Amino acid sequence: MSRAGLDAFWLGLVLTTFGAPLGHAFDLVGNSWPSGTIPLRLQLDATRPANPSLPLLDTSTSWNAVATAALNEWNPHLTRVQFTSTESTVTTAAFGNRVNNVLFSTTVYGDPFDDRTLAITLSSTAFRKTEADVLVNTTKSWNSYRGNSRAALDLRRVLIHEFGHVLGLDHPDQAVPAQAVAAVMNSTIGNLDTLAADDRAGAAALYGTAIVRPVITTQPTSATVNVTGTARLSVAVNDSATVLGSTLYDYTWYFAPTGATTFEPLFTINSSTRLDFNLAQLGDAGRYFFSASTPDETVNSNTVTLTVNPVAVSPSTQLVNVATRGVAGTGANAMIVGFSISGSKPKQVLLRAVGPGLAAFNVPGRLADPILTLKSADRTDLATNDNWEQQTATTASNIAAVTARVGAFALAPGSRDAVILTTLAPGNYTALVSSPNNSSGVIILEAYDTDSPLDPALKLANLASRGFVGTGADVIIAGFLVSGPGPKTFLIRAIGPTLLQAPFNLAGALRDPYLKIFRGDTLLRELDDWDSPASAQASLRAAAARVGAFALREVRGTFPPTGLDAVMLITLPPGNYTAQMSGLDDGTGIGLIEVYEMPD
Fold first, then answer.
1. Which of 57, 50, 136, 30 is nearest to 93 (CA)?
2. 275 and 359: one domain?
3. pLDDT per residue over 511-568, tens digit each?
4. Statement to judge: residues 353 and 437 lie in one domain
5. pTM, whole model, 2 decimals?
6. Where in the sequence is the domain holding 456, given as residue range(s)?
7. How many angstroms separate the CA atoms of 580 and 477, rounded?
8. 238-241, long-range: CB within 8 Å, 24+ apart, which pairs?
9. 3-class DSSP assignment, residue 135
10. pLDDT tens for residues 149-173?
């Protein structure tokens, strides 16, 4: 969706001396104009401030002439586009009119400038630019001159900066990581009054050469697969199957589910020229095409069909255990596992908080002394354990025997890992980890169904893990075992943004989770936002309501409603799986990962 992007130039004199040669470190907004002209409507004289009188300090006889001089700073460094301009006596302007207005204004289309903002550029931020308006803050004192900055501000150098935003350049000093370069495109005004090498390099990166036209040289082919099977749709562009998107090239798969006529972009599961279905689902069935775009044109592949045949699910298949790895902290960052006992009679479960025991797997940053506490649905403490062997000898020996029976790795004698072996009535429970000195560290928090053989009428179900989602090895990883004679359908959710809202109100919640499902080292499925594809939203809402899961936050004002939590309704054959929850673009925060068994 196209939206307005804001690029402001800040008041503040910056005098920086660089003792070494400067590398080119320009920052790109990530969108560009089509080849040709970028027409600007100059309305500066029509909206000019009362002072000063003309001519200006550099002998300019009009404010529009200053703008023309500023855009002519850029044109010699642009190959496939050129700025053009027309002067207008119109005093009104609007964003969204497909006109590139340049004017003085007391507000940003009704919103006040802040005290530091000299000028602002509003741009369409779709891949292909369609509009950019430049508004200069009339409440400041303006003139036009060369050399060091003065009390009256130099409109020419400010417009050179703003026209850089119009092209698609951003502030290098505000990039991540920040870049220390001499550039008129830095965010604060200084003594630089013309383009620097870095500015010219940025212009050349976007507009220095003609764009090579994308050609679909290998078309995708239709495929048929069973649920949980594998399939691939792939193309080649200009004889390459490994092309990647850039500021000048955009590659997107589009999808329309079976029976639908409207296609939507698959931005959350887009792998450039290839779509892999390593665990195909009914929701994948439909029509697909691949789109290759440049600022100049869009080329589409043939439309193909993926047919997904259903498979029977087994009512006897069930979840057996969950093992969540993450960082156990204090307060809201504590590691918590929630689970339900379904059925009509009590059930024995084995709960383990393993920190020191991870030394056997060479895991760094382990929690040295976890304390495990089991709570009922009304938050009553039911059991607590610090060191697993500090119980009666009979209990310790029972723990060792049950550990072996469920296939968990053995704990070393004398370790400070924590274990609770108990029998629980049907209901909802939580197990949480703390430490004697409020320290933090990596742990695995596990819950095991100890029945042998398993009883389908008495299940350990609806497993959920909450903890701090870090980066690298400190993401949350929930391993779970699906046991039984055939496939089973599960609802798996990685939740962050919803936790920011009532009734949770967790200010430190992860703002944009990313969910991946693995079997061994094989990535089966991945998803960013649960609103993509939009066609799946109805089934995801229905599944959540059916298992009693709380509703997820939706962003109103768009259609269909959208959300940044990640959700999958997925059929899995028996086996061991891991659900990995991370933050998009290395975001961090508190996250909740849930695995619900769907009723037959």
1. 136
2. no
3. 999 999 999 999 999 998 888 888 888 899 999 999 999 998 776 555 445 678 999 9
4. yes
5. 0.82
6. 318-597
7. 4
8. 238/212, 238/214, 240/273, 241/273, 241/274
9. strand
10. 888 999 999 999 999 999 999 888 8
